[in-house]
């Protein structure tokens, strides 16, 4: 589950701002419990425990189910990630290009795989041939078990522009049939045939519906990804502020007429857990694959 520093997520922060509710989360991390069991463990009345559970439920942290005359409580998420507002680099001019996720120019993938638009799946799932269907241009979600996708976009830098930083961002996760929150996958990113580094996605998420995911799309399939930002500086390449490789800005060929972005799950990866990419109409973030150039 991802939350942001906005008023929309105040119920989540309020739900966590309680010793009792934190203890409830700790207890539920080992097994499901009913209200009476929680009350006994916490040495509180069932009415008070019910009030605390309702706050956690409103924040999408737990869920409750009726089993006979008992209300069973279980965790709905196993991780909460807080996204702080992005730091804005005011000192440089920028060139921003948004690449729709269906506009790949080369691919080689293996099942499980598929594509979806805002209204339906494109062809049958698990058939790589549909990745060449003309409707792929309208894709807002795609996934594959192994292999790569490549995207190309024009290089709009002028000869007198001094490149200071490159930023690549997208919403992405692992790929598991239906979904699995605990399914690591090593996803490698390259730019202009230079490998930038590998990020291990923790899972393929369906604990809650994506904020943008269309209503027709099934609840039990991947709903959203994690927004990941890679930045290439003169001294190295970073993902979310952590160094992922020693690739420097000077290592990237820029005297060319196009940028080539590759997203890949390699045959020899330690965790071959697939890849799902979310466009601006699916998941939690209204954006495509974004390449941003900072220059002076």
Report on the structure:
Helix content is about 15%, strand content about 40%. It is built from four helices and 17 strands. The strands form three sheets. Strands 6, 7, 8, 9, 10, 11, 12, 13, 14, 15, 16 and 17 form a twelve-stranded antiparallel beta sheet that branches. A hairpin with a 2-residue loop joins strand 13 and strand 14. The longest helix is centred in the first third of the chain and has 13 residues, at about 45-60.
Name the CATH superfamily assignment of the largest domain.
Galactose-binding domain-like
Termini Cα gap: 38 Å
User: How large is the count of helical segments?
Assistant: 4
Q: Look at the structure and give the mean pLDDT.
A: 94
Return the CATH class of the largest domain.
Mainly Beta
CATH topology of the largest domain: Jelly Rolls
Order of helices and strands: EHHEHHEEEEEEEEEEEEEEE
Q: How many domain units? A: 2
| Share of residues in strands | 35-45%
Radius of gyration: 22 Å
Quick one: overall form?
Answer: globular
**CATH-level-2 architecture of the largest domain:** Sandwich
Broad structural category: mainly beta
Provide the helix percentage.
10-25%
Ranges with pLDDT <50 over ≥5 residues? none
Largest β sheet strand count, sense and barrel closure: 12 strands, antiparallel
The count of β-strands is 17
Pfam families: HTH_5
GO molecular function, one term: DNA binding
Domain HTH arsR-type: 1-95
Protein name: Transcriptional regulator
């Amino acid at each position: 589950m991802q939350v942001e520093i906005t008023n929309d997520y105040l119920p989540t922060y309020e739900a966590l701002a309680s010793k009792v509710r934190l203890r409830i989360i700790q207890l539920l991390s080992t097994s499901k419990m009913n209200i009476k069991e929680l009350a006994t463990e916490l040495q509180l009345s069932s009415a008070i425990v019910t009030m605390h559970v309702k706050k956690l439920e409103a924040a999408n942290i737990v869920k409750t189910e009726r089993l006979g005359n008992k209300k069973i409580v279980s965790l709905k998420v196993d991780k909460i990630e807080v996204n702080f507002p992005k730091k804005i680099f005011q000192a440089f001019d920028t060139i921003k290009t948004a690449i729709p996720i269906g506009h790949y120019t080369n691919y080689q993938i293996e099942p499980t795989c598929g594509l979806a638009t805002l209204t339906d799946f494109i062809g049958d799932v698990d058939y790589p041939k549909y990745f060449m269907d003309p409707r792929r241009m309208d894709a807002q979600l795609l996934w594959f078990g192994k292999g790569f996708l490549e995207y190309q976009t024009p290089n709009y830098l002028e000869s007198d522009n001094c490149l200071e930083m490159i930023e690549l961002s997208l919403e992405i996760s692992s790929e598991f049939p239906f979904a699995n929150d605990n399914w690591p996958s090593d996803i490698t990113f390259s730019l202009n045939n230079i490998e930038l580094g590998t990020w291990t996605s923790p899972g393929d998420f369906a604990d809650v519906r994506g904020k943008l995911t269309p209503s027709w799309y099934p609840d039990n399939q991947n709903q959203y990804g994690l927004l990941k930002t890679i930045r290439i500086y003169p001294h190295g390449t970073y993902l979310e502020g952590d160094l992922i490789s020693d690739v420097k800005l000077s290592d990237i060929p820029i005297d060319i007429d196009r940028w080539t972005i590759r997203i890949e799950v390699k045959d020899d990866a330690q965790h071959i857990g697939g890849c799902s990419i979310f466009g601006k109409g699916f998941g939690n973030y209204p954006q495509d694959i974004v390449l941003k150039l900072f220059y002076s």
